[in-house]
Amino acid sequence: MHILIVEDEVGIVKFLQQGLQEEGYIITTASDGLMGLEYTQKTSFDLILLDWMLPKMNGLEVCKAIREKDDTTPIIFLTAKDTVQETIEGLKAGANDYMKKPFSFEELIERIKIHFRVQKEADILTLGSIVINLNKHIVSVNDNVIALTQREFELLTYLVRNKGNVCTRNQIIEDVWDIHFEYDTGVIDVFINAIRKKLNLKIEQDYIKTVRGVGYIANE
């Protein structure tokens, strides 16, 4: 698991980095809020330990900016601020947890484990009778495992994550294929047809619908 520590106090950073690495975690550190935010935009982290009082951009601003990007990475505030109002502010900004300095390292470890456990349990996506296990990279329909290619898995997962919203062909090409220039989006139709065939759903289970001239929508 990869943890980002955004903290400007060198002593705390060294303490956390050493302790967490001994627990087997991969650690990246940022010494100011702006640097921390930039890291989250370039790298996928499993959890963020975020100080409130930071140079350049405070923790509250960083937290809000992360959530505005629809990034659901668990965030734990580590801060000396401990009034009820400040706690509420942090949670409203999108933080998942809050620990007052000085804190027990053993308690921090347990809280981290809880967030990872909750996160793992949440890594299941469903669309009607379709179940996607993101951890095991398995798609099943009525408990029958469906063999999808990597690209088919990514495309189906993308549509289910955006369940209820129309995904245009251009959005899919950019977000799933990571292509940001003019490209023949007809390839998407080929993959959608392959996915539908493999899922072998009944007519009333047409969970992936074509929005003519626009793209696709996953809906139950």
Automatic annotation (TrEMBL):
Residues 2-116 form the Response regulatory domain. Keywords: DNA-binding, Phosphoprotein, Transcription, Transcription regulation, Two-component regulatory system. Gene3D superfamilies: 3.40.50.2300, Winged helix-like DNA-binding domain superfamily/Winged helix DNA-binding domain (1.10.10.10). Residues 122-220 form the OmpR/PhoB-type domain. Transmembrane segments: none annotated. The modification 4-aspartylphosphate is found at D51. Residues 122-220 bind DNA. It comes from the Bacteria. PANTHER family: REGULATOR OF RPOS (PTHR48111:SF22). This is Response regulator transcription factor. The lineage of its organism: Bacteria, Pseudomonadati, Bacteroidota, Flavobacteriia, Flavobacteriales.
